[in-house]
Amino acid sequence: MPLLLPFAELEVGKHLYWQLGNLKIHGQVFLSSWVVIGALLALVVVGTRKLERDPRGTQNLLEFVWDYIRDLSREQIGEKAYRDWMPFIGTLFLFIFVSNWGGALVPWKLIHLPSGELGAPTADINTTIALALLVSLAYFYAGLSRKGLRYFEYYVEPTPIMLPFKIVEDFTKPLSLSFRLFGNILADELVVAVLAFLVPLIVPLPAMFLGLFTSAIQALIFATLAAYYIGEAVHEEHH
Amino acid sequence: MTSWLLLAEAGVPEGGLFDLDATLPLMAVQVVLLTFILNSLFFRPVGRAVEERESFISISRADAKQKLAQAERLEADLREQLKEARQQSQRLILEAEQEMDRLYREALAIATADANASREQARREIDSQRDQAMASLNKYADKLGDLIVTRLLAAS
Q1: How far is B12 from chain A (nearest CA, A)?
Q2: Which of A35, A43, A213, B27 has the fewest C-beta atoms under 10 angstroms from its C-beta?
């Protein structure tokens, strides 16, 4: 990548490889994802330790988040099926949101790795494709378990002409989901890193705030689209 | 897809932006596990708490509505009683006034009759005494006339 050579410190596309049998995995992604998961679990454990009828402190925050996720999934999936899928949608939202914000807010650079650098787990294409494929599996499973083979009627509705487009959609959905998230988060990290490299003071701040905004929006978009796809799969056509 | 993505990275022996490997399935497994853990630690308990509160609120609200209706009924009832009591007291006052009026009139009539009777009696007494006095005066006058006549006749 000759274009990025002047910014050698950015270390784009370098990974900390761990060998697992004969499989290679990206260690830095797992390290930061464990931090993210740990933070999430800590918050959840602290907030649900003593659930009261009059919520206070962390319980309030968790209930707000819960309510937000419920509204999101109920709106997209529909009253009948949203309960089954709310944990999945919520986990996607929380994981992506905390990953993105963690990538932007935690000073990862202070921790020095032998190769690559820590950052948002969602800035790695593996993570986003994994999440997007889970969404694909989820909506297939949702449709098939709710409607059986009648699920495939969806491909010829409203007319059989739609069949090839709907099949192509099954491939473009995970592709667009994963690349949108990956591209946004990586680009944000790059912009901030490049600005911080060129002008280390003040100038990167607006980009960082914008980055926080995009990070939240991307989490919301991913969760909303996942819920929408599941809702589309379980939707009963009324003739 | 993998080969195409790796083609985009041709020339980079290892690594790169689009380096797909075992990270992908492991991350998927990790996220699925996280889903189950969050479901049992977060979504279910918080959902239960929220729904319990919602049902508590709706029950209390129904209860309060019932109580309010009861209070309104009681209020109307009391208002009715109050109105009745007021009317009754009005009636009692009216009756008492009438009674008082009647008693006053009766007493007045009796007193007037008494007064008339005693005045009548007094007049009758005065009349009879005057008659007596007149009669005795007449007798004296007659006697005196006789005496004068006798004396005059005797003198002449």
Answers
A1: 9
A2: A213
Cα A168 versus chain centre, distance: 23
User: How many domains would you assign to chain A?
Assistant: 1
In a domain, A177, yes or no: yes
pLDDT in tens, B80-134: 999 999 999 999 999 999 999 999 999 999 999 999 999 999 999 999 999 999 9
* A17-20 and A23-26 strand pairing: antiparallel
- Per-residue pLDDT of A26-81, as tens digits, reads 888 899 999 999 999 999 999 888 888 888 888 899 999 999 999 999 999 988 88
Domain range for B51:
2-149
Which range marks the domain in which residue A135 is found?
Answer: 68-234
Does residue B18 fall inside a structural domain?
yes
User: Within a domain: residue A104?
Assistant: yes
Is residue B155 included in any domain, yes or no? no
Task: Indicate the number of domains in chain B.
Answer: 1
Q: Above 0.90 for ipTM, yes or no?
A: no
CB–CB of A102/A35 below 8 Å?
yes
Domain-embedded: residue B34: yes
Phi, psi (degrees; rounded to nearest 5) at A227: -65, -40
| Cβ neighbours for A233, distance < 8 A, ≥ 6 positions apart | A139, A140, A142, A143, A146, A151, A154
Model confidence at B14, pLDDT cuts 50, 70, 90, reads low
The answer as to whether B154 is a domain residue is no
**Angle CA A201–A29–A194, to nearest 5:** 25
> Chain B closest CA to A89's CA: distance in Å?
9
Contact B41 A20 (CB under 8 A): no
The minimal CB distance from B22 to the residues A20, A67, A121 is found for: A20
- Asked whether residue A83 is assigned to any structural domain, the reply reads yes
